[in-house]
Amino acid sequence: ALTFPPGSHSFVLSSLGFTAVAFVTGSLALWAPAFLYRSCLATGQCRPCPDKDTCSSQQSLIFGLITCVTGFLGVGAGVEISKRLRRTNPRADPLVCAAGLLGSAPFLFLALVCAQGSSVATYVFIFIGETLLSLNWAIVADILLYVVVPTRRSTAESFQIVMSHLLGDAGSPYLIGVISDRIQRGRPPSFLLEFHSLQYALMLSAFAGVLGGGFFLATALFIQGDRKRAELSTQGLLPEEAEPEDQIVVPKRGRSTKVPVSSVLI
Is the domain of 257 the same as that of 219? Predict the structure, then answer.
């Protein structure tokens, strides 16, 4: 029969949810300043820069400040909210992560929709969306620590980091750019077209946030059982099955019994 190590369900699902977080943050980090600048050009609020190599954009500075502030606020708020809810709800950690992702998606969507109408509203929605998005960072690491046994935590952490970057922030900027270029293909170039093409492409990030929230909701279904199994395994109350090649035959009360090699070696 196919067996899974303790905590594998919660670990895999939370890693997929965290990958969605990395997907959204990676796409916003690269394309949000360009999107804000294109919205400024499309509405005529600013003039195009004659030399793109030396052009300084105020939108990049504002977005960078928002990202720094929301990062501190979101991480701190996520830890505190999870700590308080954990006293009454053992599933608090994945539920807070799910609420953060599902809550950030509509605000990021509104930021994209309102960019052409009001720049102030756009920055407000980005601030709220990124704050909710940042609730997950510390909590995901905490989930990994208590659903994975100590001997596998370093491997699990490495796998989660590689997975989140490979499928998240490493590929999302490229994918957003490809979609934006594909929308512009075959149409006469204009500032308005560049703005709308990037606007439609960035909407993928909002949907990725909803998908990540679904993964964290699924994590909440397994978190209690996986945490209990990991604790029992750490205490030696849930012995793991050894592989056939790691077993030797030892006589026990007149019978041959297969036991792990580690249990007889001193």
Answer: no
**137 close to 78: Cβ distance less than 8 angstroms:** yes
Tokens 């993928």 found at: 204
Q: What is the domain range of residue 39?
A: 8-235
* 2 found inside a domain: no
C-alpha separations of 171 from 49, 129, 168, 176 in Å: 28, 21, 6, 9
- What is the C-alpha to C-alpha distance for residues 218 and 252, in angstroms, rounded to an integer? 44
257 and 213 in one domain? no
State how far the alpha carbon of 230 is from the alpha carbons of 7, 115, 122, in Å: 6, 47, 44
Per-residue pLDDT of the chain (266 residues; tens, 9 = 90+): 334 454 578 999 999 999 999 999 999 999 999 899 888 888 877 777 766 555 656 888 899 999 999 999 999 999 999 999 999 999 999 999 999 999 999 999 999 999 888 888 999 999 999 999 999 999 999 999 989 888 888 888 999 999 999 999 999 999 999 999 999 998 888 888 999 999 999 999 999 999 999 999 999 999 998 888 888 887 776 655 444 444 555 555 655 555 554 454 44
Q: Are residues 79 and 29 in the same domain?
A: yes
Q: Which residue carries 């929605």 as its tokens?
A: 125
Closest C-alpha to 107, from 24, 228, 218: 24
Could you give the angle at which helices 92-113 and 136-147 cross, rounded to 10 degrees? 150
How many domains, the chain? 2
